[in-house]
């Protein structure tokens, strides 16, 4: 790939935004797309008054071009079944001001793939940031359950960021669970992930992760969140220092590979954020 080559795509229609009608709602395509070697930015005017900017950054990526990714946004009602049926808590809900799902859909036959984590950020002026408002960035893969992936929420009017090891749907939601429950749920999610995919990790590395996870679980159970944060930092360092080949670290558009490294890094980074903002 050539360095610092940016391709800008602009909608050829003279309309202020492009709509593709579907049975569920109107799917809106970006007005502007910018591609570089390892990043994508997009601006989407969802309605006359609601817009969202998307940015994606990769550690390593191949096949990144306008033909391999479809980026879109869909505005739904906050109580739409396509959202509520994918939530595992009544205390998590879409916002009335911004009930927008942003989707990143790679062409499964394109050869697109990335290594490690991808960082996804949504920015919108439709919501006004306040530090005590528990807005978080959620993701759902293949119409599955929405899970919190947040690593940053900041002003501007609101900017929400998180890491992922695969591509899916993304949505800013209101999360009124208690901080302790959020942390506990995240630990349970990591334990479930390791139960499903631990067999893909080399035994020595897996044993180290499982030992540290045991200490983390004890700390969270005892509500010793300072110790839990230290253990999460240790786990992130452990994964970063794992030898090459210790675990799968690639996700492909065909969705046939589990990006274990990328998913673990993403989950632990979001858990670290949750512990830091308690």
From TrEMBL:
Residues 1-25 form the signal peptide. The keyword Signal applies. It comes from Alteromonas confluentis. Pfam families: DUF6689. This is Uncharacterized protein. InterPro entries: DUF6689. Keywords: Signal.
């Amino acid at each position: 790939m050539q360095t610092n080559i940016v391709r800008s795509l602009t909608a050829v229609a003279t309309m202020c935004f492009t709509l593709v009608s579907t049975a569920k709602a109107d799917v809106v395509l970006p007005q502007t797309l910018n591609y570089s070697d390892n990043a994508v930015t997009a601006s989407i005017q969802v309605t006359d008054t609601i817009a969202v900017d998307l940015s994606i950054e990769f550690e390593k990526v191949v096949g990144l071009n306008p033909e391999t990714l479809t980026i879109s946004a869909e505005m739904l009602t906050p109580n739409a079944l396509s959202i509520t049926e994918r939530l595992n808590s009544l205390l998590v809900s879409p916002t009335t001001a911004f009930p927008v799902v942003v989707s990143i859909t790679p062409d499964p036959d394109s050869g697109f793939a990335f290594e490690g984590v991808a960082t996804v950020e949504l920015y919108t002026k439709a919501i006004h940031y306040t530090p005590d408002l528990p807005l978080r960035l959620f993701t759902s893969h293949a119409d599955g359950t929405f899970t919190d992936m947040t690593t940053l929420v900041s002003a501007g009017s609101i900017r929400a960021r998180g890491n992922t090891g695969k591509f899916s749907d993304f949505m800013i939601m209101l999360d009124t669970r208690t901080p302790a429950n959020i942390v506990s749920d995240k630990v349970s999610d990591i334990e479930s992930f390791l139960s499903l995919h631990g067999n893909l990790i080399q035994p020595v590395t897996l044993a180290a992760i499982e030992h540290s996870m045991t200490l983390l679980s004890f700390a969270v159970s005892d509500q010793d969140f300072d110790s839990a944060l230290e253990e999460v930092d240790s786990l992130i360092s452990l994964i970063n220092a794992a030898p090459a080949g210790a675990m799968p670290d690639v996700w492909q558009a065909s969705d046939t590979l589990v990006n274990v490294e990328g998913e673990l890094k993403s989950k632990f980074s979001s858990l670290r954020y949750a512990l830091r903002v308690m």
